Amino acid sequence: MDTQWPRYEVFKQDSPHKAHEAVGSVHAPDAEMALLQARDVFVRRPSAVSLWVVPETAVFAITAEEIAANPVPPLPPIATHAQTYLVFTKTSQRRSMTFVRHVGEIVAATPQIALQLAMESGRFNEDAVFVWWLVPESAITRSEPGDIDSLFTPAHDKTYRQQSYYGFVSPTRNRK
Amino acid sequence: MNESHQTALSTWLLAMADDQLILAHRNSEWIGHGPILEEDIALANIAQDELGHARLLYELYAALTGDDPDKLVFFRETAVYRSTQFVEYPKGDWAFTMLRQYLFDAAEMVLLTQLVDSTYQPLAQAAAKMRNEELYHYRHSSAWLKRLGLGTAESNQRTQTALDTLWPLAQQLFVPLPAAEFLTTDGVIPPATVWQEAWEQVVRPFLHNCDLAIPTAAAPPTADRAIHSPYLAPLLAEMQEVARFDPEATW
Amino acid sequence: MQSDPVDTDRLQEFETRIARGEKIEPGDWMPDEYRRQLIRMISQHAHSEVVGMLPEGAWITRAPNLRRKMVLMAKVQDEAGHGQYLYHAAETLGISREEMLAALLNGRAKYSSIFNYPTLTWADVAWIGWLVDGAAIKNQTMLAHCSYGPYSRAMVRICAEETFHYKQGKEMIVHYMSSGTPKQKAMVQDGLNRWWWPMLMMFGPHDTDSPNSPLLIRWGIKTKSNDTLRQEFINEEVPELLALGLTIPDPQLAFNEASGSWEIGPINWDEFWQVVRGNGPMNAERLAARQQAHDNGLWVREAVAAYAAKQQA
């Protein structure tokens, strides 16, 4: 039986003042390897200062269409076992690169309750959200600030991976 | 720098560059053939870094001798290459590749940590740049080795078999080069014994924790970098094939 | 196709969303056929990237200088990365990578027929960059506007990265033709002779023989037809090739003043279908190489999964 290993969702932060965005996933046997693989897959070019990886099974994802079809029933707030969930939203249809990005935290006992609280809180512009992701903070493995030099800086020197390195190549225009 | 010091330095730089080049070649053979897609990407990255390190070192060499890095790589005969047999051996299975990479990464990391303080400024600068990449390489190959050593009985056995072959070969990395004492007394490079001891302090406990036994016999098959394994000549024939197809051409 | 009245409503709503330019995201309702067509296209596209590593990858160890070697490694690395992005996009539709790889290895899934041709000289690496990647970019630029969010995002990222693939290939051909040696020029012309027609076939069958196209266009997966993309590419690249003094291996190639287009002779579709059906020059070798990597990697994947399980226990 083949295994391609479990899937880890990858979130990338492009600069210190930007939010982490979901960029795709890697197949990895565990979180430590997932973080290294995320670096090789998503940081071949210089555009990262931080990476997070999360097992895909830990992500609670729901679209506005799904919520409209099955409105979230009011859930009793459960005080026990509350934990912090990171809230991610997709709020634009215009730019095709826009997917869910990190917008804040909610403390709740389950992701469903976290979603309900997030929608009721008024903090996340809930009418303009197309996709919600709720991720328990405890499931996230993060790169450390000290990793920047070894994980992210080397891509800056790999200028041959940039199209600008090659200049403009056109035999017809050169002749003019 | 006087002439004998300069010769000692260029000899040393060429040897270090050749090791990086040949190992990059072996690692690049995995691109498209790795055990999982994510590792094709990782190995391609490591091979690019090593080729980049080779190029930096050839450039330092060329600055002393007036040679051209491309000429050095693509038109030099096997006999005048100065790589160790350790990097020349075929890529083998994934255990062999990852173990060789681990042993080499540990050696390079330890060396670069010392070279960032080299009294030869161009070398200190190059070392600082290479070291960032090397920290990641070490993290990658040590993560792999832990998993191979402690994974299944088969993976442990394959890694142990690789270690039995590679441990003696690895010792050749630390054999002092001709006239290297000029460089160590000037603080250009660390003494080979210091380098080797620092390496052993890293790798011995680590390999032990991976449930791998270090072979007791540790003499390299040769101490002389002019003596190559049978694997280098075919490797170079392949590497130089296109360049030599039309030596007048620029590519 | 959809007879259930509820589904008819949903289909209408779905098509309205697409007409509004909204992206369909994982979890949203979609017709089964939309999902099926996307899985077919995206997995085929992913396999093409992964199999596509082989013809060029074979030249990494032989690249003629340090710069070219570095560039080629980065390019083939990108192809692995693009395969990875695309498998991810397909996975969001509910198919696993194990299933997709099994379909590739048992011959059920297809990949771009171009990669079943051999790379015989270094110039072929340059031609793959210019013509094959150039053709792929035409298709991918269109797919970046696709209605399925994950596919569209993968394409945006791939197009941004792939432009360098095209430029490095073209840079080589321009250099070899304008200041190269006679041997280099001969190598380049020989490559064009072999790659020209297979490259034109990459855009797929004529619109009249492309039964899925109207549906794919209606659902915003494709926005242009095969023939439209092919003709755009011909019009862009033919003048460039001719300006370098190259001979395009098509005696009927002619510029039509009225339409402003370069018209080509007939494409040999028998050859195309032979290659698609697995009878191309390199089909067997490509699949054997993938199968071998898969088999050799099995103990590795098992070992690392076993380690992860032990750590969790």
* The named CATH superfamily of chain B: Ferritin, core subunit, four-helix bundle
Structural class, judged by helices and strands of chain B?
mainly alpha
Provide the β-strand percentage band of chain B. Answer: under 5%
Structural class of chain C: mainly alpha
Shape of chain B: globular
Q: Nearest-angstrom radius of gyration of chain C?
A: 21 Å
Q: What is the radius of gyration of chain B computed over CA atoms, rounded to a whole number of angstroms?
A: 18 Å
Low-confidence stretches of chain B: none
Q: What is the general shape of chain C?
A: globular
Describe it.
Chain A has 176 residues and is an alpha+beta fold. Chain A has one domain. Chain A is 24% helix and 27% strand. Chain A has a 4-stranded antiparallel sheet. In chain A, strands 4-7-5-6 form a 4-stranded antiparallel sheet. Chain A is globular. Chain B has a single domain (3-245), classed as Ferritin (Up-down Bundle). Chain B contains 11 helices and no strands. Chain C is mainly alpha-helical and 313 residues long. Chain C has a single domain (5-312), classed as Ferritin, CATH 1.20.1260. Chain C has helices spanning 5-19, 32-51, 53-57, 66-91, 97-105, 122-143, 149-179, 182-201, 213-218, 226-243, 269-279, 283-312; strands spanning 254-256, 261-263. In chain C, helix 6 runs antiparallel to helix 7 (149-179), helix 6 runs parallel beside helix 8 (182-201) and helix 6 (122-143) packs antiparallel against helix 10 (226-243).
Quickly list its features.
heterotrimer, B: 251 residues, mainly alpha, Ferritin, 69% helix, globular, C: 313 residues, two-stranded antiparallel ribbon, 12 helices
Topology readout:
The complex is a heterotrimer of chains A (176), B (251) and C (313).
Chain A: E1 7-13, E2 21-27, H1 31-42, E3 50-55, E4 60-63, H2 64-69, E5 83-90, E6 101-108, H3 111-121, E7 131-136, E8 141-142, H4 148-152, H5 154-157, H6 171-175
Antiparallel strand pairs in A: 1-2, 1-3, 3-8, 4-7, 5-6, 5-7
Chain B: H1 3-28, H2 37-65, H3 69-74, H4 85-88, H5 94-115, H6 121-150, H7 153-170, H8 180-185, H9 192-209, H10 232-239, H11 241-245
Helix pairs in contact in B: 1-2, 2-6, 5-6, 5-7, 5-9, 6-7
Chain C: H1 5-19, H2 32-51, H3 53-57, H4 66-91, H5 97-105, H6 122-143, H7 149-179, H8 182-201, H9 213-218, H10 226-243, E1 254-256, E2 261-263, H11 269-279, H12 283-312
Antiparallel strand pairs in C: 1-2
